[in-house]
User: What shape does this take?
Amino acid sequence: MSEAAAHHGPPQGFLRKYVFSLDHKIIGLQYYALALVAVFIGMVLSWLMRFHLVWPNAAIPGLQLLSKNGAPGGLITPEYYLSLLTMHGTLMVFFVLTNAPFAAFGNYFLPIQIGAEDMAFPRFNMMSFWTTFVAFVVLLAAFVVPDGPPISGWTAYAPLSAVGHDAGPGLGMGQNLWGISIAIFCIASLLGSLNFIATTLDLRAKGMTLMRMPISTWAWFVTSCIALLAFAVLLPACLLLILDRVAGTSFFIPAGLVVSDHLEPHSGGSPLLWQHLFWFFGHPEVYIAILPAMGIVSHILINSMRKPLLSHKVVIGSMMAIGFLSYMVWGHHMFLSGMNPFSALVFSFPTLMITIPATILTLIWLGSLYGSRLQITAASLFALGFISMFVSGGVSGFFLAQPSIDIYLHATYFVVGHFHLVMGVAAIFGIFAATYFWMPKMTGHMMNETLGKIHFWFTFVGAYCIFMPFHYLGLAGNVRRYSSFVDDFMAPLMPVHKFITIAALCTGAAQLIFLYNLVHSRFWGPPAPENPWNATSLEWTVPSPPPWNNFGGTHPVVYHDPYQYGVEGAKEDFIMQNSPEQVKTPIRS
Amino acid sequence: MATTVPAPPVIDKPPSRPFPGMPGGNGPAGLIPDSGGLRAVADRSPEPARTGIWVALAAIAMCFAALTSALIVRQGSGNDWQHILIPRILYLNSAILVLSSLTLEFARKKVARYIRLEGVTRSQAMQWLGATLALGLTFVVGQYLAWLQLRSEGLYLATNPNSSFFYVLTAVHAIHVLGGLGGLLRVMYLLRSPVPVLRKSTMDSTSYYWHFMGMLWIYLLFVVCLKL
Assistant: This one.
């Protein structure tokens, strides 16, 4: 335990305690709250989109207040549909999927799980949250500027995103705000990743070797390594995009572009360059979204199964392999971009290779579940749901990984179904699992298990109802990012869209159960003991909620591997990591 | 991975250092001694500032790698690559930056001797730090003069892709150099207090950052001269 870390004293005063807190736990909760707000806004945006797709002529009362031009009389214009789509993607990918599993739970539990008092750089930690908050506000400002949010998608492809307000609504100030917001978000993420890496490497407690860290800690560590290098690429990319827009440079804008009868003065740029830079970040980003959930789900399942996974080392190795390979596959988003088809082959191969560690992980989860006496709690249900969603979504990735098949499936709903299942829903299930598992520790109150299980079943069935049909739609040729479907071949597909919309609205409504459970339990839930789940890792050795310095000024000492469940000769069916109990045959995996 | 413990460690006793680099079941970082007991565990984890600076430098390197690859792709994408004449002052600036690295190394030695109370006064240590600071500021000013020179030749940010990359690369580097100057100021501030609260790790991290900025600039100079 290094004393050289910049430790702070107990917080004094309201601002220091709850607003500009240096305490990683408060910062984690702040990130969680931000993600909750973002996911609510993102979900509402998706409802607006789904509503418009099946009832394009029905006015949504009050929407004209949000945007006079985009939704006159409450009817969403095609351009505004694209704006909603862009903001939905940006909010969800950045502010929910990167924030909640990684920044929120990671910030809260990484230091405790390794036995540290706080993160290595608490002031950087505070700065990283408030910088994320500023990025969030800047992004939301795009809703209130006269032209509205950008229409170029969360991927902001050039030249649409680069030429400026000529190209359509939202591409003036809205796109500028998007670029600035994401650039600020990159800086925040870099600070956060820096903290995670330094903390994991330097602040582990006595006896906490790297291999004794829980799988969730490993997941956060690998994620932060990926995030460090990925966001460092997105930042200059956003800078170049902003320069193209406001300074007249031509990084991404080719010559001779006529937009709205206006010849663009730029020349020589490469739209493909933006795609390369963006996806070099963008593919590791999706693994940043999913790896923490994998770690959390492993952690929860082991606890619920009362036995470790088949091989601790292989799980960690697979996560590292996924992280490493994630940097080699970005071109699979660009099979149809006009790049050399041989490059497509070069990217297709590692894309298929990366399914290997992912499959290894899945098989280890399933193999460990076999023969285990799984305790069914809301957390373990969501953990199982994660595996289901990850497999369902991942399998469609096999098809998309082949350039020849992708020629047909690219930019159809097949892709949308794939990434929503494998990234959106699976990671959200990971977030839910983590919430049900760790809320007792974070708030000191147990959540209602019955409501949690009801929430799970509604969400599980609902998510499949929403996203499974997407694959069917994609195979039928339904193009993505269209605000209405007017072709003849689309007419038979409209009932499917209606089904999806109704499922989306119902599943969204079911989240109120979770929200109610969250708020009610926080204030009126039964008090949580120190270790309600009889778990082994260090976060269960501290009070619920933990004091400001986590371990009350003591330095924990770790004697055991993280998942000593069902050890022969032990007093109970689990041995906590800091327990001095000796056993003759510890579990080695 | 031994989890059996013959006896709980006695935390009061000072830990005896195990032989570094001992092979066998020592585990990473020598944390698990062969005997299995934790009595001999030594805390040899580095201070966070040391790890942190390497992590930060990795991110900064990645940022400039992205800009370099953007440059290479952009060069190949359009046929509007017009080589620009590099302002001569850039070579002087490079010399100034390299010199500032030298003065920083002198400063480090002086600071170390001052902290160890070996007869170096605080102002002597501060002088070298101040010299590094001054040279760094001169570098940034010199970069600005280089920009002015380009502007006088009619090469602005958007004139052609070469000039765009020149401004972007030098500006991003200069922003990071300003950050490094901030770090130096912080070191000087920490040194200023009657009882110096400057940790060796802080001094080391700040100087690694500064040297990295110098090496990065040499790399950028190559890129600028060869490509632009």
Summary: Residues 1-6 of chain A have pLDDT under 50 and may be disordered. The two ends of chain A are 26 Å apart (CA to CA). The CA atoms of residues 558 and 578 of chain A lie 4 Å apart.
